[in-house]
Amino acid sequence: MFGSGKKKACWIRKTHLFRADEYVCSACGRRFDRPYVQCPGCGRNMSGSKYDPTWVDEAEITDLLD
Questions:
Q1: Residue 2 lies in a domain
Q2: What DSSP designation does 6 have?
Q3: What are the tens digits of pLDDT across the range 31-53?
């Protein structure tokens, strides 16, 4: 076998309107307040990140409430 057997994963950055950003591991789905080199949940090496603009949905909901 080649390598350590663990595939790489990436962080999915979720930006929110009224609270701090959170980073979700693409492999195990655990959420953290900052991106790490290795996921503390599953131990996979992280390669880059993706952006998920969750704040857009939150802004849309506040418009509906007005």
A1: no
A2: P
A3: 999 999 999 999 999 987 777 76
- pLDDT on residue 62: 62
Three-class SS state of 25: strand
- The answer to whether position 45 is within a domain reads yes
Domain count, the chain: 1
Q: How far apart are CA 20 and CA 39, in angstroms?
A: 19
Q: Quickly list DSSP for 40-53.
A: TTT-PBEEEEEEE-
Domain carrying residue 40: 9-65
Per DSSP bridges, beta strands 9-14 and 46-52 are: parallel
Return mean pLDDT, the chain: 79
